[in-house]
Design brief:
The protein has about 450 residues and is of the alpha/beta class. It has 2 domains: about 220 residues, 3-Layer(aba) Sandwich (Carbamate kinase), CATH 3.40.1160; about 140 residues, VC0802-like (2-Layer Sandwich). The strands form 3 sheets. Strands 3-4-2-1-7-9-10-8 form an 8-stranded mixed beta sheet, with helices on both faces. A 6-stranded antiparallel beta sheet has the order 12-13-11-14-16-15. Strand 3, helix 8 and strand 4 form a beta-alpha-beta unit. Helix 3 packs antiparallel against helix 6 and helix 4 runs antiparallel to helix 5. The chain is globular, with a radius of gyration of 23 Å. Magnesium ion binds next to loops. The site of aspartic acid (ASP) has 13 residues, from helix 9. InterPro entries: AceGlu_kinase-like_sf, ACT-like_dom_sf, ACT_Aspartokinase, Asp/Glu/Uridylate_kinase, Asp_kin_monofn, Asp_kinase, Aspartate_kinase_CS.
Length: about 450
């Protein structure tokens, strides 16, 4: 079984949706097709939800009207016959009646999450009807029947696998099974999601749960590039990456993959292939456990980082001190990305400020606390770069002009992370591109 996931841009225009139907058809064997919402839809749903939470019903209705028009135009191009256009119209009007019903009621966080799920629900229904029109043998398998997260918002891989087994064996004769990315149920059995960009994660969770042959992530670029193409002009695709390398890049900001995508795939050793829907002949990137030669592989950056410095000459070297500091973060369900220590202070970073005020308050018992918001982590990934002579020099030579707030190296031989103020992020990415890859 193959998993084929198509992102928002791959289904965002009627001709692209038709194109992916062809791609699926021309790929031999059985496959599970995971679809995102049409590009722009989840952003629109976020904006509708935020207006509603703020009590701005009229503003929400304006966005709903625009979105509805978009779908009405979309189906006119997607379906060839009057009969299927009528089916498409019924689907669109049903979803928009439901969205308006959600908007009219008591709108809380639960309704918000339900609203966010509508994008993937509608895209998969429209695509399913499109393949029906083309007489392809396919079935729609609702993700809400099997995809779930626990009270810590962690996917329940074992349960997902157990639920999928009977569902898939009942579809034994079907070549193409279509399901929604991103959406799931939470521990209260409510509709929830795997966070923005989560369709990649859905694909890797399904692929790992059923030990698929391969997880394919089809998007709008020819694989993982050596640097962020939205910020750096000249970037190049990387044909092979290890799970560790890809995982670091995804976690530290390479938007092509949801940060957790690689985790289940690595656990069950299922290869992940990144492919370009706009250029299917391009090789893309294959991610496996196999190490590859070479030195520097890629650079990624993650914004919205807060650095916290705890200065405590009295206590720092005492045993148990770091454990007590980390416990404060654990109690607030806030994970730490970078850590550095000195004789008198410890610095660490977090990417979630939800509980910052209370964390700061509790840390005060350990000493003086300084908090710097608006930082960015730059992550340099390569093959054993911290073990090879001269590699670190190359990084620091390239970044000579940039003030570095923190430096972490040695946690893994394949990665170095530095923390800079967000104003230096773009410059740092460009300087590293030139210094490490000779690309300008
Ligand atoms: P999809 O809608 O298919 O999920 P995304 O927009 O989430 O697509 O991800 C693809 C985008 O990720 C690319 O268009 C590119 O701009 C961005 N991106 C950021 N960093 C990288 C990288 N290192 N390599 C490739 N693409 C990247
Ligand atoms: N539609 C969701 C989002 O825009 C999930 C995804 O595209 O992966 O975040
Ligand atoms: Mg994405």
């Amino acid at each position: 079984m193959l998993i084929m996931k198509f992102g928002g841009t791959s289904v965002g225009k009627p001709e692209r949706m038709k194109k992916i139907a062809e791609l699926v058809l021309s790929t031999p064997g059985k496959k599970i097709v995971v679809l995102s919402a049409l590009s722009g839809t989840t952003n629109a749903l976020v904006s509708i939800g935020e207006h509603l939470l703020a009590g701005q019903k009229a503003k929400a209705e304006e966005v709903i009207v625009d979105l509805e028009k978009h779908y009405e135009a979309f189906i006119k191009e997607l379906y060839g016959s009057e009969a299927f256009l009528a089916i498409g119209q019924e689907i669109v009007s049903r979803y928009f009646i439901f969205i308006r019903l959600l908007a009219a009621g008591q709108f809380d966080n639960k309704s918000y999450r339900e609203l966010l799920a509508q994008g993937e629900l509608i895209s998969t229904e429209l695509f399913y009807q499109h393949v029906q029109e083309r007489k392809i043998s396919a079935r729609l398998l609702p993700a809400l029947y099997f995809m779930s997260i626990d009270e810590n918002e962690e996917p329940e891989l074992e349960k997902i696998s157990e639920r999928l087994k009977p569902l898939l064996s009942s579809l034994n004769n079907i070549e193409v099974i279509i399901t929604q990315g991103y959406i799931c149920r939470n521990h209260r059995n409510e509709i929830d999601n795997l966070k923005r960009g989560g369709s990649d994660y859905t694909a890797s969770l399904i692929g790992s749960a059923i030990r698929a042959e391969e997880i394919q992530i089809w998007t709008d670029i020819d694989g993982m590039h050596n640097n962020d193409p939205r910020i750096v002009k000249k970037t190049i695709p990387i044909s092979e990456l290890t799970f560790d390398e890809a995982s670091e890049l995804a976690y530290f900001g390479a938007k092509i993959l949801h940060p957790s995508t690689i985790v289940p795939a690595q656990k069950y050793n299922v290869p992940v292939r990144l492919k370009n829907t706009m250029d299917e002949k391009a090789f893309g990137t294959i991610i496996t456990s196999k190490g590859t030669e070479g030195s520097f592989k890629a650079i990624a950056a993650k914004d919205g980082i807060t650095a916290i410095n705890i200065k405590s000459s009295r206590m720092l070297m005492a045993y148990g001190f770091l454990r007590r500091v980390f416990e404060v973060f654990e109690n607030h369900k806030t994970s730490i990305d970078m850590v550095t220590t000195s004789e008198v202070a410890v610095s660490l970073t977090i990417d979630n400020n939800t509980h910052l005020a209370s964390i700061e308050n509790e840390l005060k018992k350990f000493g003086n606390i300084e908090v710097d918001k608006d930082q960015a982590i730059i992550c340099i990934v390569g093959n054993k770069i911290t073990e090879q002579k001269g590699m670190l020099n190359k990084i620091f030579d390239a970044l000579a002009e940039i003030p570095l707030r923190m430096i972490c190296s040695g946690g893994s031989p394949n990665n170095v992370t530095v923390l800079v103020h967000k104003q230096y992020k773009n410059k740092a990415l460009n300087l590293l591109n030139e210094g490490l890859f000779g690309l300008k």
